[in-house]
Design brief:
Radius of gyration: 19 Å
Number of strands: 23
Low-confidence stretches: 1-8
Distance between the termini: 32 Å
Structural class: mainly beta
Shape: globular
Mean pLDDT: 85
Order of helices and strands: EEEEEEEEEEEHEEEEEEEEEEEEH
Strand order of the largest sheet: 5-6-7-8
Number of helices: 2
Length: about 290
């Protein structure tokens, strides 16, 4: 899910197995830099990878494992071409009939789409569709938009989806942190940045979904409470704006990378980290209760 701002004139996506230091293949090229990639969804072997570039295109690949559990071939499934300017961020959410493709772009838009079934699963879903009482219980035959929001000013730079895939967040030139429902594509909350923050360039949710780290043009990284919009932490140390953000798995640290070539590790406020861990524990307990 990391941004991949290649320096060359063309960009592509390469997949590798870190366990065996093996190159698993390369995806379709983007004409221009590959600016964002995202993976998601795993159910019955179904998994996807998506990449986006300055050429306005989004490539979606079949990242499913082979039947024997070995990595697949990452074949190109489809190319989506419905942005009118560079795509700045792309994320995947859900599986099966709930598979979604979300993207943001320099055309000031955020787009929500339902994904068609992977080619290898199309026949299975086709049979299920014939027997289904509810059409929404099966994937559509074609990938299609179910909501698009166009902002009056400025590029949307960053997009991330919470681990439970219920909502996503975006940031951009208007400096606001916006929260959206993945199910409907509608914005549910919007929080302004503090005075002087500048454009918001990147965003990342913590594993619990309760905190959002936002990189601003003033070179500071701010951490917000997603539910209330409260500013809970501010980190300054980069010589240029941060371009990459990540939380540690235990929610205790924030890792940032900037245009200055530096990587910084920040300790989050103890009470916020503890609250995030409690949310993770509650979510894990709820998931365990749902398993038959």
């Amino acid at each position: 899910n990391n941004n991949n701002n290649n320096g060359g004139g063309g960009g592509g996506v390469s997949a590798g197995d870190t366990s065996f230091d093996e190159d698993l293949g390369s995806g379709a090229l983007h004409y221009g830099q590959t600016v964002s990639s995202g993976g998601g969804g795993f159910l019955g072997g179904e998994q996807r990878l998506a990449s986006a570039g300055r050429d306005r295109l989004i490539h979606v690949y079949d990242a499913s494992l082979n039947p024997d559990g070995t990595p697949g071939s990452y074949l190109l499934e489809e190319t989506v071409d419905d942005h009118s300017a560079a795509v700045t961020a792309v994320r995947l959410a859900g599986t099966g009939a709930a598979a979604r493709l979300l993207s943001a772009g320099a055309d000031k838009s955020v787009v929500f789409r339902r994904l068609r079934a992977l080619k290898k699963h199309a026949a299975v879903w086709g049979a299920a569709g014939g027997a289904a009482q509810d059409p929404s219980a099966v994937p559509p035959k074609k990938t299609s938009r179910y909501h698009q929001e166009v902002f009056p000013r400025g590029t949307v730079y960053g997009l991330d989806v919470d681990a439970a895939e219920r909502y996503c967040v975006t940031v951009g030139a208007d400096r606001r942190l916006r929260v959206w429902s993945v199910a409907t594509g509608k914005a549910v909350r919007a929080y302004p940045a503090e005075e002087g923050a500048g454009e918001a360039l990147a965003v990342r949710l913590d594993p619990s979904g309760g905190l959002a780290a936002v990189a601003h043009a003033d070179r500071a990284v701010r951490v917000y409470d997603v539910k209330t919009g409260e500013l809970v932490a501010r980190a300054r140390g980069h010589g240029e704006a941060a371009t990459a953000l990540a939380f540690s798995a235990d929610c205790g640290r924030l890792i940032t990378g900037g245009g200055d070539g530096c990587v910084c590790v920040w300790r989050l406020p103890a009470e916020r980290a503890d609250a995030a861990r409690n949310r993770l524990a509650a979510a894990a307990a709820a998931a365990t209760r749902q398993v038959p």
